[in-house]
Amino acid sequence: MDILKLLSDTFLDWKAIGAVLPKMFAVGLPNTLVLAVSSGVIGTVLGMLLALMGISRNAGARWVARIYTDVLRGLPPILTILVIGLGFGPIVRQWTGSTSPYPMAIAALSLMSAAYIGEIFRSGIQSVDKGQLEATRALGFGYGPAMRLVVVPQGVRRVLPALVNQFIALIKESSLVFMLGLLASEREIFQIGKDAASTSGNLSPYVAAAVFYLALTVPLTHFVNWIDRRLRTGRPEKKEPDEAAAVVGKGAQA
Question: What is the rounded distance in angstroms from the CA atom of residue 186 to the CA atom of residue 30?
């Protein structure tokens, strides 16, 4: 019983959780979503560019894409965030006059996600049968329009589950930007939980932060599974009215 009480006091201090919830809702949750969505959109655009460079006929473009992807995927996320946020931050502040590290946090997450999304797109595009491209070229389309209108859309459709998984990873990786020292109004879920835990000396705010992350990631995980099933099995065929009536009639006779 003493152990249970100790665990309860350490992780389930409802007073500490109640004190941190308003700030997590009002500040942490919006900032986490802004970080994840902004970097996801920018990373998707850059990732598609990297994918097209990676399958380009130009050897220089392929090398640039390969080096970028290998470096950004090979570094730990926290190291990339620190190098970009703290290394290039002063230069950006000198140009813009802004003291906020928030844009650098988005930039770091975007550049990291672009490396992974680029590989996702590249694998999806290269999985499309070459006959699709050849058939489109036979109809009179140039290489560019054939890729843009036929091959790329099919490749993107095949990797939708992997793209959503990458967005889930971005939500979790957004917790690492606390290392950049965000302003009070810019702090995400983890930073708010960390501040509250440091102030109260209790780990319950971390539990509250974990619940927020689970509320975001678990539904997306099930959404990924649903997309994957739909892509593998397709939509269920609708029975024609006469056929459906016949099935119902057979059931009634039985």
Answer: 9
| Gyration radius of the chain over CA positions | 24
Q: How confident is the model over 40-48, as a mean pLDDT?
A: 95
Which tokens sit at 138?
A: 């036979």
Handedness of CA 177, 182, 185, 191 (dihedral sign): positive
Domains of the chain: 2-253 (1.10.3720.10)
pLDDT at 247 over 80: no
Query: Tens of pLDDT along 89-141?
Result: 777 777 766 677 888 899 999 999 999 999 999 998 888 887 877 788 787 77
Amino acid at the residue 89: G
| Three-state secondary structure string covering 45-79 | HHHHHHHHHHCCCCHHHHHHHHHHHHHHHHCCHHH
pTM over 0.70: yes
